[in-house]
Design a protein that fits this description.
- It is a single chain.
- The chain has helices spanning about 5-25, 30-35, 70-80, 120-135, 150, 160-175, 180-185, 195-200, 235-245, 250-260, 290-300, 315-330, 360-375, 405-410, 415-420, 425-430, and strands at about 35-40, 40-45, 55, 65-70, 95, 110, 140-145, 205-210, 280-285, 305-315, 340-345, 380-385, 400-405, 435, 450-455.
- It is α/β, with parallel strands linked by helices.
- The chain folds into two domains: about 5-25 and about 290-455, 3-Layer(aba) Sandwich (glycerate kinase, domain 1), CATH 3.40.1480.10; about 30-155 and about 190-230 and about 270-285, Rossmann fold.
- The strands form three sheets. It has a six-stranded parallel β-sheet with strand order 6-5-4-7-8-9, with helices on both faces. The protein has a six-stranded mixed β-sheet with strand order 10-11-15-12-13-14, with helices on both faces.
- The longest helix is centred in the N-terminal third of the chain and has 22 residues, at about 5-25.
- The radius of gyration is 23 Å and the shape is globular.
- The protein starts with a helix and ends in a 9-residue tail after the last strand.
């Protein structure tokens, strides 16, 4: 094996270590443990992860525990370790995607579909609604929210079927709509999202512990904001469909509901002035930015000159990849004598034009490999793009981990990388070059992390 090949192996391992550090920083079990405690027999709820003097406590007679999202089971397990059994309501419930589902003593744990909702999720959502509706004054509804919650608790308004909602979500995903846009629509088709869960919980107290999977940590966007006020409107939802030219493709029931809402014939989502939020509090315990910081610290410890390329990486994956390669190339033309780590956090999009298989991280990785050859990216390098939840699109991969020889391996396997990219078939391309990032379900979800490691050609040493 050549010295360059040996260096590539080292770089690939380091990229994995840096990625894993980011995932570990979003450990939902530890984060919940740090935000809950018992003091003088009363549950103490942290309102800020930095200021330990910022908390909420009361002698609640009963606690209704609701957890949903990809990290729901780990978060609920942490809460169960702290909440006294005699306070826990018997109708408490946990909902997660199938690959992250684990059994929990004393709780009803349900698996549901993600990214597209399914019938199991609808049944689970109805159980959630029933649970919080039973909550009374001087009782607490404790809601544990993590990424994926929007799809996992589908409870469409009465005039819309689950299949209508699935078709709507699928069309929005396929046309490249952002998570903010998709969630705006979801809120206006749902009985739980957009503050709906908080509305059902009143007059009980409510506290939400939130693991963010959105870039700006907007609480109204995470899981479509079931416990917070919503600033979007029916008109906003209709505008999104028009922008992507898919209004005519929407199910008739969806169009009819939104149009009636626009005319004031359907109730809007609750806004900030609604008194239902008077007894509602929240705490953010993990996010993409926290994970990005952890990844950066690990890269620096490994001897890299570490730069954050973008804290909110977004846009069409293949164009984002080309811009990133150009930027990396500009760095390499300067006084390039030390290893560089360029990191990013975010969530790109893919507009489907082909019938291939893949996800945004795989497409970003394949596009990066193609752009790196096109612009002759210098030095020994590896690039990783992965979902912190361990799942990228409808595949078993978390993303991709490529190097300067990835395209050669694809071509050797009789594949045309450009053709596969144009067919949105990044999974086939990366599988052929042994560049799929396979982590399995991580139990958390704080969007995606990207890592580019570059060693100058003149550097004859490898870092370990």
């Amino acid at each position: 094996m050549s010295q360059s090949d040996q260096k590539t192996l080292v770089l690939r391992k380091q990229a994995l270590d840096i990625f894993e550090a980011g995932v570990m920083a979003a450990n939902p079990f530890l984060a919940v443990k740090q935000s809950l405690s018992i003091e003088n027999g009363q549950l103490k709820l942290a309102l800020n992860t930095v200021d330990k003097n910022s908390f909420r406590s009361k002698e609640w007679s009963k606690i209704h525990l609701i957890a949903f999202g990809k990290a729901a089971c780990a978060m609920a397990k942490a809460a169960l370790d702290i909440i006294p059994n005699h306070l826990l309501a018997g109708d408490s419930i946990v909902i997660s995607n199938y690959s992250n589902l684990t059994s929990l003593n004393g709780l009803d744990a349900i698996g549901a579909g993600h990214p597209l909702p399914d019938e199991a999720g609808l049944i689970a959502a109805k159980k959630c609604a029933a649970c919080v509706s039973h909550a009374k004054q001087n009782e607490l509804v404790l809601v544990l929210i993590s990424g994926g919650g929007s799809a996992l608790i589908p409870y469409p308004v009465d005039s819309i079927s689950l299949n209508d909602k699935i078709a709507t979500t699928g069309l929005l995903l396929a046309c490249g709509a952002t998570i903010h846009e998709i969630n705006c629509v979801r809120k206006h088709l749902s009985q739980l999202k957009g503050g709906g869960l908080a509305k059902l919980s009143a007059p009980a107290d409510l506290h939400a512990i939130i693991l963010s999977d959105v870039l700006d940590d907007d609480l109204s966007v995470i899981a479509s904001g079931p416990t917070v006020a919503d600033s979007t409107t029916f008109n906003d939802a209709i505008t999104i469909f028009s922008h992507y030219n898919v209004w005519d493709k929407m199910p008739n029931a969806v169009k009819e509901h939104l149009e009636k809402g626009q005319k004031g014939l359907r109730p809007e989502t609750p806004k900030t002035t609604d008194p239902i939020f008077n007894n509602t509090t929240h705490v953010l315990i993990g996010s993409n930015s926290i994970s990005l910081d952890a990844s950066a610290k690990t890269a620096t410890k490994l001897g890299y000159s570490t730069l954050v390329y973008n804290k909110q990486l977004c846009g069409e994956a293949k164009y984002v990849a080309e811009d990133w390669v150009k930027y990396a190339k500009s760095l390499c033309t300067k006084d390039f004598d030390t290893p560089i780590a360029l990191l990013a956090g975010g969530e790109t999009t893919v507009t489907l034009k082909g019938d291939g298989k893949g996800g945004r991280n795989q497409e970003l990785s394949l596009a990066f490999a193609i752009a790196a050859e096109k612009y002759d990216l210098n030095g020994d390098w590896v690039f990783l793009s992965g979902g912190t939840d361990g799942q990228d699109g409808p595949t078993d991969a978390a993303g991709g981990l490529i190097d300067k020889n990835s395209l050669k391996r694809m071509i050797f396997a009789n594949h045309d990388p450009e053709r596969l990219l144009n067919n949105n078939d990044s999974y086939t391309a990366l599988k052929s070059s042994n560049d799929l990032l396979m982590t399995g379900a991580t139990g958390t979800n704080v969007a995606d992390l990207q890592i580019l490691l570059i060693h100058p050609k003149s550097d004859s040493n490898t870092h370990s």
